[in-house]
Amino acid sequence: MTTFQPTSRATNHNRIASTIKPSPPIWSTLLSTVSTRHRIPERHLLLLGSSPSSQSDLITQLFPPAPPSRRERPRTIPLANTHALGYTYRDLPSSDGEDTLARVNIHTLPSPSTAYAPLLTRLLTPSAIPNTSVILLLDWSKPWSFIPELLAWIRLLKTAVASLSVESQHLLEDNNTEWLKRRDEDAQTSITDGVTRTPLTPGEFDDPLGLPVTIVVGNVVAMEGLEKNGWREGEFDFVLQFLRTGGLKHGMGIVYAAPGGDEGIRAVVYRGLKVEEERKGVKHNVVDREKVVVPAGWDSWGKIRVLREGFDIEGVSRAWGVDVEGSTNEKEGSTTEELWASRVANPKVEDKEKPKIEVEHTPDQTFLGAQMERLEAFRAEDETAKKQRSQTRRTNVPEDSSGRPSIDEQIGPVQFNMGGIQYDADEALKRIKERTKQGSGQAQGTPERTRTRESTPFTPGSPPSFEAGKDIPVENLEAYFASLMKGGRGGSVQNSPRVASPRMVQKGSGEGSGT
């Protein structure tokens, strides 16, 4: 057993310091090497626009979940995209499913509000810019909102990019250079050797954003509803030509997210994320309207014109460039939204005027005074109509307004029989009136003697006399006709004295002598 003799503290300290040498950090170096070797590359995807449900469907279509194994339980990754800036992540597996190509950090925004510009600026860090891609998501259920939404998102991106640091601006320029290089590589054929720089066509990549952008139009099933509402091939071609013209200025790709078209949309989006497992060209498709695929850097004005004639590609490109910059001074011609609305109008336009809080009403006295004036006018109209009806009743009209004969004409003359003699009452009344008129004409200028019933004897069977210029007394006429009726029956005729004629006297005397 070894024994240690005590020594001074200073001597022991010097001896330990001279014998122990510092060892290299083995474990930290080993852990750093392993973590670097197994580190998964990170990518950043900005998913902008549409509803949270549409964003979730697109994420599922781009990154389908791996089939669950028997040992592990299926795990769902949450997606928080209901309010403001949302976030989730997805691992992108290789084709054989053994390795993970990249972990994609997905950031979502619901609307192109200018308040979200600082959030985008914080996401676009120098380390994230080379590995960031953007998706502008549209919905076919609202095609009239395509262009307004695209312009608003592009303005928001330009606002966020303009506030980046100088280092970030240089990285954005590097992205633009890489975009041109890839465009030239895609344009090469197997015949040519090397990469030849091809010039840009008019309206192509003249306003780069510094980030790869893809326009994805979802909910393709809604195109059937538009077709039932009157859309034809011309409208669908106009939409595609408009989107291609605007996307060409910024170097964007365009994809219609149709059911069964997952390969096309994945190829375009993965290319923007730079996670291609194999470098192969993306096949374009502009014929099938439900499965459109336009890779970035493939399009040109000539290809857009071929789709349908009559499209003003120069005017749309010029208006797009002016509206994206947001300059309101010295605008020539129509704006982009006006050109778009001329063919794709919103059928559900509502009055945007807000209802007034204060309701204007008429004072009670003013309202009652106006109603009183109306009532007085109605009363005057009623009195006028009443007077007209009374005058119409007094007037003896032979025929009514319908042209039918009057009642007197339908009944005919009033006649009766007296003692075998046919007597016309109407004719008698007519004669009496004529006599009255003649008497009034003769009596003009001479004083007329007043007569009473006592002074004017009435003889049955003879027509009564009347004073000129006065109405015919109805009582005398009634008595006159009553006497005629009685005379016809024989009562009054027998009682009245008769003057015997000479023939009757002689005949009577002869008979008497003969007896």
TrEMBL record:
<feature type="region of interest" description="Disordered">
    <location>
        <begin position="381"/>
        <end position="412"/>
    </location>
</feature>
<dbReference type="GO" id="GO:0035974">
    <property type="term" value="C:meiotic spindle pole body"/>
</dbReference>
<keyword id="KW-0813">Transport</keyword>
<keyword id="KW-0067">ATP-binding</keyword>
<feature type="region of interest" description="Disordered">
    <location>
        <begin position="435"/>
        <end position="472"/>
    </location>
</feature>
<dbReference type="GO" id="GO:0005874">
    <property type="term" value="C:microtubule"/>
</dbReference>
<dbReference type="GO" id="GO:0000226">
    <property type="term" value="P:microtubule cytoskeleton organization"/>
</dbReference>
<dbReference type="InterPro" id="IPR022780">
    <property type="entry name" value="Dynein_light_int_chain"/>
</dbReference>
<feature type="region of interest" description="Disordered">
    <location>
        <begin position="486"/>
        <end position="515"/>
    </location>
</feature>
<dbReference type="GO" id="GO:0005868">
    <property type="term" value="C:cytoplasmic dynein complex"/>
</dbReference>
<dbReference type="Pfam" id="PF05783">
    <property type="entry name" value="DLIC"/>
</dbReference>
<feature type="region of interest" description="Disordered">
    <location>
        <begin position="326"/>
        <end position="355"/>
    </location>
</feature>
<keyword id="KW-0243">Dynein</keyword>
<dbReference type="GO" id="GO:0045504">
    <property type="term" value="F:dynein heavy chain binding"/>
</dbReference>
<dbReference type="GO" id="GO:0005524">
    <property type="term" value="F:ATP binding"/>
</dbReference>
<dbReference type="InterPro" id="IPR008467">
    <property type="entry name" value="Dynein1_light_intermed_chain"/>
</dbReference>
<keyword id="KW-0206">Cytoskeleton</keyword>
<protein>
    <submittedName>
        <fullName>Dynein light intermediate chain-domain-containing protein</fullName>
    </submittedName>
</protein>
<dbReference type="GO" id="GO:0007018">
    <property type="term" value="P:microtubule-based movement"/>
</dbReference>
<keyword id="KW-0963">Cytoplasm</keyword>
<keyword id="KW-0493">Microtubule</keyword>
<keyword id="KW-0547">Nucleotide-binding</keyword>
<keyword id="KW-0505">Motor protein</keyword>
